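Subject line: Sequence and fold of a protein, written as structure tokens
Body of memo: The sequence and its backbone structure tokens, given next.
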Amino acid sequence: MYELAAFGAVGGLLVSRYDVRARCRHERLSRRERQFRAVFEGTLDALVITDDEGRYVAANPAAADLFGLPRSELIGMHVGDFLDSDAPFADEDRRRGEIDLLRPDGETRTVAFAATANVLPGYHLSALHDVTDRAEREAEVVEERARVRFLNRLLRHNVLNGMNLVMAKLDALEPSVPEDRQADFDVIRHRSEEVVDLVQTARRLAVDVEVDRCIDPSDPLEDAVASVRESYPDATVEYTPPDGELRVRADDMLETVFDNLLTNAVEHNDPAAVTVTVGVEAEPETVTVTVADDGDGIQPERRTELFGEERYGHARDWGGFGLSIVDVLVREYDGRVWADANEPSGVVFTVELKRPE
């Protein structure tokens, strides 16, 4: 009798401990289920669960938005109702990639997916993220590059070759040009050379600027100063090269920047009366080049329109493309360019270029 009673007490204790463990295990499972449900319902990416037959058995609100259907309608539909291919998890435990999702309203969305088979036996989880905008941008970039390549070929084969022929004819005609028409001939030659330079600049802009290169800005600056002095012998261009070597993030197109700024300063003033002063200042992180003239200057409201337009834009109906080219190139170098009033007259263009780290 004593042994039976003792056994009953021990047995009751064991049963009680078993009930407590079972209850704790149930609570843990319930807590994990609530956590999973909260994540499943609240995540911004679309989550769907399908069975072995490829039918949706669960979907979160983001999935309903992506598929363009209420969840009540989405549940029970087949993967093949939206995809041209098989279910993403068909033959592998885990898969990633991109697919085209065909919505019931006829719209096609490009979707990045990460699929995991058998998160529970016979049930498969897929996380979907809409990347349609990115895919469209990539397609636009590819198309734009194709247009740029076509434009590059057009400039090279048609415009540049045609201008080279014009230059050759000018060379042949020069000895027979009457003295009283020499000035007109010089204008024709100068403008023809400008067209050739502009076409070559456009062609180089049509390919990637080498923003990872580092050069000494003194070399292209000296070349630009020499070129403007030769083209406009009546203009005064003051420039003192800096001491020591400087390095900035740029490439050989930097000479085009300086040449356009210097040419702009001379052409928009009286070359015989204008003085252009070029300065270079080195800071620990930047090198600043200034091109200042003492001419008529630019109206304040127009100075603000010179730079900072939409990239590769030239919306203003005044001024040439030279300063727009300057803006594009300096941006490519991750630098800055702006214009201020010069004292007592004229304008100062400032180009700030980053030094290599």
In short: Residues 1-15 have pLDDT under 50 and may be disordered. The longest strand covers residues 108-120.
